[in-house]
Amino acid sequence: MEASAQQGNYVQVYVMLPLDIVSVNNRFEKGDELRGQLKRLVEAGVDGVMVDVWWGLVEGKGPRVYDWSAYKQLFELVHEAGLKLQAIMSFHQCGGNVGDVVNIPIPQWVRNVGVSDPDIFYTDQHGTRNIEYLTLGVDDQPLFHGRSAVQMYADYMASFRDNMKEFLDAGLIVDIEVGLGPAGELRYPSYPQSHGWSFPGIGEFICYDKYLQADFKAAAAMVGHPEWEFPRDAGTYNDTPQRTRFFVDNGTYLTEQGRFFLAWYSNNLIKHGDKILDEANKVFLGHTVQLAIKVLSAGWREGLNMACENALPRYDPTAYNTILRNARPHGINKSGPPEHKLFGFTYLRLSNQLVEGQNYVNFKTFVDRMHANLPHDPCVDPVAPLQRSGPELTIEMILQAAQPKLEPFPFEEHTDLPVQGLGGIGGGEVEDPTGGMGGEVQQDPTGGMGGEVQQDPTGGMGGEVEDPTGGMGGELPPTV
């Protein structure tokens, strides 16, 4: 294939590093083990790795007291291996979500503020606090030793930039993913298992801290309804829509008050993302990095670069083939870029189990297929210097931009570049447009590890959306 086709069909593959790659004591103690694992990733043709950079570790000792030493050691090892790096600004707690094996809370000195003012945390209608992430109600409240939440996040990112300058200048760090909520996602903690939620419960509205309540009352007063309050008929965590008066067909969500509440709830989330992404854009302006966030979004429809990850580890060909089918829904295009293709995929997560035996053979083949059976190319999708974002969009403009532009498109039944190995796949052969021959693959009845952005039934989102403007999230569809 020509270079243009390579650019179009090649899907970058990253591997997520273990949650405890930097210990809960902010120490890098797994250098020897990681060095061997990174060598195996390089041999498999992987493009890079992704890592959480935990706020609770780096600024854990006090306001503006940053300790980046452990992450510097880690980054040096990744640089030595010749891999790219995606760094996540993780402003949330590690622990309590599916797959969390360690507990890293947000900084203790921040939580101490919550002792006297527990409303800094998201709160449900029962008064239960969620300490995984600060409520967006304190985004602009100078409650944290004179700083607001947004200012703390901005200062953290600026310190990262200054202390990791050598790695930014060397081109090691290519993506900065900005955490915007629970599990790093732009959402409310509406379905925490720690509060008793279980699938498929509808969850609850989480806006009962005093700051968001005051914001809602002020917004309602501005439209002439100071008497309006939050819904009282939206059910509890494990209800179904039919058991509520709010969500049932023709429910109270359709009333003037219900529509107003939903618009306020959603728009505040969008504004939260806008504020923090704008700060990130200013911090990394001019550096050769891209900004990324995790959202529930039909990103292809909106023309955004989409990168996704699997919800749970899988090592079998059936799962890999599901990802491949989702990564290029219509397969290889020998004359140019496919109409729809993932920008990148992150495998969750690095372990000895992944890089040994048949699991490694399957994974290496999977990476080859994601690369469209082309040689590993570190220059695919080069990163340009980050530019300043445009002016902030109004909510009306955002909602208009989020209207569907394409009809849903069908996926091919099978991938045209299947992975074969232990685990068994269906018979028959399909032509490999790059010259190889691959067997047809049975569709995974469990859904496998889907590469497209879709909600994980455990509550986690398996994807992220890259903002190609590098700026505010104004182009992103609203999350209700």
Automatic annotation (TrEMBL):
<dbReference type="InterPro" id="IPR017853">
    <property type="entry name" value="GH"/>
</dbReference>
<feature type="active site" description="Proton donor">
    <location>
        <position position="185"/>
    </location>
</feature>
<comment type="similarity">
    <text>Belongs to the glycosyl hydrolase 14 family.</text>
</comment>
<keyword id="KW-0119">Carbohydrate metabolism</keyword>
<dbReference type="GO" id="GO:0016161">
    <property type="term" value="F:beta-amylase activity"/>
</dbReference>
<dbReference type="InterPro" id="IPR001554">
    <property type="entry name" value="Glyco_hydro_14"/>
</dbReference>
<feature type="active site" description="Proton acceptor">
    <location>
        <position position="309"/>
    </location>
</feature>
<protein>
    <recommendedName>
        <fullName>Beta-amylase</fullName>
        <ecNumber>3.2.1.2</ecNumber>
    </recommendedName>
</protein>
<keyword id="KW-0624">Polysaccharide degradation</keyword>
<dbReference type="GO" id="GO:0000272">
    <property type="term" value="P:polysaccharide catabolic process"/>
</dbReference>
<keyword id="KW-0326">Glycosidase</keyword>
<feature type="region of interest" description="Disordered">
    <location>
        <begin position="429"/>
        <end position="480"/>
    </location>
</feature>
<dbReference type="Pfam" id="PF01373">
    <property type="entry name" value="Glyco_hydro_14"/>
</dbReference>
<keyword id="KW-0378">Hydrolase</keyword>
<dbReference type="InterPro" id="IPR018238">
    <property type="entry name" value="Glyco_hydro_14_CS"/>
</dbReference>
